[in-house]
UniProtKB/TrEMBL annotation:
This is Uncharacterized protein. The keyword Transmembrane helix applies. The chain crosses the membrane at residues 25-45, 51-70, 90-114, 126-146, 158-176, 182-203. The lineage of its organism: Bacteria, Pseudomonadati, Pseudomonadota, Betaproteobacteria, Burkholderiales. Keywords: Membrane, Transmembrane, Transmembrane helix. It comes from Roseateles agri.
Length: 272
């Protein structure tokens, strides 16, 4: 317990008010999200093999997001709140990759479930192309993390946007060929997917493009993959300056809140 207190005291030392408030909020979210997942585990309407698989996938996502909330970081800039081995960029990115693949599989399984309820077997088959976009995106993400090239991080975001766009199209077909709660949930999914795509195209991609342009204009030298791997494992830049975190907090906060809540909520969708 004393080592844990030391870790947090190191992070608190010298941090400004904005970082402290944001970090406390993230830690509170981590606790809340774990409690919500446990509530669904013990009291939620989890049914069938689909429900059990969704619960397991969501559990991985919830735990990794809790870890990343307690020890936040920005990959390419190597920013961390707390300078500890557990804040390793390489370690955090590895955990995030596993979690995001789990979340992508949840989305594919959700469309598959709704397609089954709507009696659309071809949509069920097409549903498994949804996570393909997100899985491929992980490769672009790793390239950006290891080379420090923001252009492939922008590509990663575009692939997520493409995956959600395809999911929205499949959900639109389900909404037109179903009724009741299946149609309502499909419409809700369309609205959520559309909002996510709009956010990515208006916030994430322009941010990474600006960082790419800044890197090019400042003469940033991109790393070879092997050197980048060592750098990601060893180098961390601890900072409690809110100006350094502010831009990334705009996507990290909804990621660790709304993203996790959606993951947990998906568990409760009845199996066909």
């Amino acid at each position: 317990m004393s080592s844990i207190r030391n870790i947090f005291s190191i992070g608190l030392a010298g941090a400004d008010a904005g970082v402290l408030s944001w970090w406390r909020a993230l830690r509170a979210l981590a606790v809340l999200n774990i409690c919500l997942w446990l509530a669904v585990l013990y009291f939620g309407p989890v049914s069938g093999a689909h429900g059990g698989l969704q619960l397991a996938l969501s559990g991985v996502y919830v735990l990794v997001c809790a870890y990343r909330s307690i020890l936040p970081r920005v990959d390419l800039e190597r920013l961390v709140v707390v300078d500890t081995r557990l804040s390793s960029i390489f370690l955090g990115r590895t955990a995030a990759t596993v979690a995001e693949i789990c979340f992508a599989l949840q989305l594919g399984l959700l469309v598959h479930q709704l397609g089954a309820h709507a009696g659309l077997p071809w949509v069920q088959t097409a549903a498994w192309t949804v996570p393909v976009f997100m899985v491929v995106a992980q490769g672009f993400c790793w390239h950006s993390v290891l080379t420090l090239n923001h252009i492939t991080q922008a590509c990663e975001s575009l692939l997520w946007a493409a995956g959600f766009s395809w999911m929205a199209a499949l959900l639109a077909i389900i909404a037109l060929d179903s009724n009741g709660w299946v149609s309502a949930l499909a419409i809700f999914g369309i609205l959520g997917s559309t909002a996510f795509v709009a956010y990515v195209l208006s916030v994430d991609v322009p941010m990474y493009w600006r960082r790419y342009r800044h890197g090019r204009s400042s003469g940033l030298v991109y790393m070879p993959l092997n050197q980048g791997a060592r750098d990601a494992w060893n180098r961390r830049v601890p900072t409690g300056n809110w100006a350094a975190w502010k831009a990334d907090a705009l996507w990290l906060t909804p990621y660790f809140s709304f993203g996790v809540w959606i993951s947990i909520a998906i568990v409760c969708v009845p199996s066909a």
